[in-house]
Amino acid sequence: MDAQNTNPSTEVGHRPLVDWLRIFHTPGIGSRRFHRLLEIFGTPACILQASRQALLGAGLNNSQVEGLRSGQQQAVDADLEWAGRDGNHLLCLDDAQYPAMLRQIPDPPPVLYIRGYIDHLSHHQIAIVGSRNPTQPGLETARSFASHLSRCGLVICSGLALGIDASAHEGALAAGQPTVAVMGTGLNRVYPARHRELAHRIAEQGVLVSEFAPDTGPKQGHFPRRNRIISGLSLGTLVIEAALRSGSLTTARHAMEQGREVFAIPGSINNPLARGCHRLIREGAKLVETAEDILEELGTLAKTQLILENTSIIPDNSEQLQIDKIQAADPDYTRLVQAMAYEPVSIDTIVIRSGLTPEEVSSMLLILELQGLVTTVPGGCYVRVENERNCT
């Protein structure tokens, strides 16, 4: 069955989802207060069953308690009707399909509204953000980086804004790859309006995400909140052209607070749109000149993330079966694996031995590292990873 159209958790009879939505739509209960209630009571059902005295003791006021008691049925029914349409999905925080990366941040949205191919949210993502009024070279850089990184297996995540965001989405789509757009409105209200056609193409090839109910319009306070989701979904955030007061710096700082990597492309000291990137670099962001700079860094981070998610990096059958599968899919991988051994080897040596280009080797090494078949060691070298079961 098509993943885009599968959403069993949105059935009207699915009581837990209804409980999440009732609390989510209660006036005055934002995501932080929702999380606080979960810490105290454990589940949405327990929150709704709690006594007035217990809810007041948890920090709610009389109006908020009455809001919980009223049930918010009209808003809940509207959400369930929306989620019943093809391609639409509703995820609550305890859903197995809720993005694992996003769940780790301090303030994950209790409910996510999604349109498109939901499985893309579980893939490794790189956020690309920047100025809404970039230079033409900035637009070209965003498109080029997005195209290259998406072809290397990373899903491009951005905010559907004018400028760098839109160019990043376009770069991924032009490469025939999915992209994730996190919106500061509900999914029925595209902002800016000129990006309606772009949003439609993203939904057909990738996925649209929002923490706001479908008909929610644009409000100034929504976009900084959206930014924490962009960084929260991603292994790292790349900033391309940002002034000192750019909203992109908010996304980058969210990434830092979330323990994610931050990358920035430097520019001319005379370009005001480079100053935000220069500040990030001074604060510890990785200076980026090529896409390979990002691939090299994120390969190790992606592997670490798989471990944190308790996901097996190598399937249970064996390392050799996984290598055979990769080799059967692309004979170039056979050449690359055969050019490596179990001692450190530089990319330059692999290039010479395999006859592949440096760009091909960098991209393929990232894929192999995500599979757990190679790893980086100090000095910028790589080694093959031997399955411990083969050593006993």
Task: Kindly list the characteristics that best describe this protein.
392 residues, alpha/beta, Rossmann fold, Arc Repressor Mutant, subunit A, 3 domains, nine-stranded mixed sheet, two-stranded antiparallel ribbon
The geometry reads as globular
Radius of gyration from CA coordinates: 23 Å
SSE pattern: HHHHHHEHEEHEHEHEHEHEHEHHHHHEE
Tally of alpha and pi helices: 18
* CATH class category label of the largest domain: Alpha Beta
CATH fold descriptor of the largest domain:
Rossmann fold
Report low-confidence residues grouped into runs of 5 or more. 5-13, 306-329, 387-392
| Main sheet: strand order | 1-2-6-5-4-3-7-8-9
Q: Summarize the amount of helix as a percent range.
A: 40-55%
What does the average pLDDT come to? 85
